[in-house]
Amino acid sequence: MASNFHSIPVIDLGLAKSPSTRPELLKQLHHAITCVGFLYLSNHDVSQNIISDLRGALPALFALDEATKEEVALHNSPHFLGYSQVGSETTGGVEDKREQFEFATELPNNWREGLPLYERLNGPNQWPANNAALRAIVTRYIYELTQLSERFLMLVAEALSLPAETLFPFLSEQHRLKLVHYPASDPSTPIDQGVGPHKDSSGWWTFLLQASPPEVKGLQALNKTGDWIDVPVIEDTFVVNIGQAFEVVTHGVCKATTHRVLSGPHERYSVPFFQGVRGSLTKDEALDTLREHFAATKDSSTEAAEGASIDSAFLCGRYDTWGESQLRTKIRSHRDVGRKFYADVFEKYIHDS
Length: 353
Hints:
Shape: globular
Oligomer: single chain
Strand order of the largest sheet: 1-2-12-9-14-7-6-3
Radius of gyration: 20 Å
Number of strands: 14
Distance between the termini: 35 Å
């Protein structure tokens, strides 16, 4: 197992289509998911028209007036879906300089008293008024990324010498999508925290569309020796990285890699799609299901101190299910939503660390 990385590998999914090139793809994929935790996907078969439509909708969406944004603000939704303004979240105690709209696989609000509280996270989206085109674009994009993420997951299983659908029972029926805008930094402070160092804790895998031109930088991944490696825009690719739940299930063989976004002199748009994890997944199930398969794999790699200090809220937290761990994380990140919709558990989740 390699001890470090200095660039992010590009995985050509077109190689999976031929028996003669598939073994090379699986070899490259195995290296990427066990030694780096980040990769680019090219030849992914998601229509460029779908991607272009979404990218083209972003400037007008974020240019909406504040009153229109407020109508679909996150604090209106018990499902934590909607608009968040710049500075509404922090990472590592520092304010993140980004605004975002969060959408998800459209589901009805079926939660009622007696069901696990985390099931209330599932529910319908909030859509800006008089914008049917945006709803169609986002809905189609979520569908296409759901299909891509499932195709990719079967290749990951094969690369790890597992049956193709081994990883599917861990998935949720709802996946989440963020449309993110990083405003340009003030000229007096040209480098700012778009989002601070973190590991993705809200999904199985993340599929990121970097929706700005190649000259707009910002995304960086932390390598094993503590160097920040740029993840620049490569046209017609998605950036894919491992979430913490996948690290738990693979017993650290596939590690979630710490990453961050620096804001700079240019505004930046990005669209992360988070492949959802089933809320009822317990720690014992996550650790035991594939324990024997990964027991023989020795992980000799180390992690930079800054990354190693980021705990898994699921594995290290007090709560036994992925769903409750996620609900706690969201309430702590968006306390106005927690106070409004989850008053019975708000104090417990805020003060349990």
